[in-house]
Amino acid sequence: MKDSSSISLTGIDVSKDTLDVYFTKNGRQQKIDYRNESLKLLARQIIKLKATVVMEATGGYEKKLVRYLQDQGIACAVVNPKQVRDFARACGTLEKNDAIDARIIAAFGQTMQPRTTEKIDKNREKLKVLTTRREQVQSMINQESNRRQQVEDRQMRAFIQRAIRLYESQLKELDSEILKLIEADQAMKQKSKILLSAKGVGPTVTANLIAGLPELGKLNRQQIAKLVGLAPLVRDSGKFKGQRRTCAGRGHIRRVLYMAALVATRWNSRIRAFYLSLLERGKPKKLALTACMRKLLTILNSMVKNNQTWEQNLCSA
């Protein structure tokens, strides 16, 4: 890890209409409009200072900025806002406004030196939008189906049924668009072929893994499990031995892995054997299923890393 004081960083607090910017190299701070003209001037300043940009994930507002800066050859790191807030409290900074946030983000970047974000791939970004919408539509179908069961009025049931048909039609369209997008991109097509070779992993799980977990195949087994939130974390202190628990991580990836693991415990001999062995040792079913999610994830990670299908990975294991 480099000496933090020698690193040139630019901390940016992103909001809908403005950007608060802090440069560690010269200590300057400024507030600019979040417009293309302002971004051109900002990029020139950052390039002149040879700085890396650090910003928080803000629910999507940061994407335009990241895309523009990366196109200019500027390295960007998008970090978890909770980690930055915890860092601020650890530094004794309880005050909060946009200017303070920009300075704290820069200080966080200097101290923690977060991993830079990969350049945004347009096809993967499009796939992420499609899979997110698919999850929303599926959720609406489930909600409307539950409402239909609780309503006795025939007219209301008819209204709900029409809504369900509309969402089901949209779901088919989304599945078609997702498949076409993956087939048109050689890298995504190859990754999809590898993932689909595992019993329990279907097209929906595959699309979500490609879109929402680009790190798959690039990290080791411990790192990928912790990133998704499937690594049991130690909570010991002195003589106290706390129960290991999984937490945080990417919830939407855990949701699709849960369904994949549920299917795999029935139809995938490797995962089923592991699941049954845990139950025989007295492990609760929920814990055993979570362990299967982690095992399935680490196997898929190894498959993508080595460019192997399930059978090839099994033979080399």
TrEMBL record:
The keyword Coiled coil applies. GO terms for biological process: DNA transposition. This is Transposase. Residues 134-184 form a coiled coil. It comes from Gimesia panareensis. One of its GO terms (molecular function) is DNA binding. Residues 193-275 form the Transposase IS116/IS110/IS902 C-terminal domain. Residues 11-150 form the Transposase IS110-like N-terminal domain. PANTHER family: TRANSPOSASE (PTHR33055:SF13), TRANSPOSASE FOR INSERTION SEQUENCE ELEMENT IS1111A (PTHR33055). It comes from the Bacteria. The keyword NADP does not apply. Keywords: Coiled coil. Transmembrane segments: none annotated.
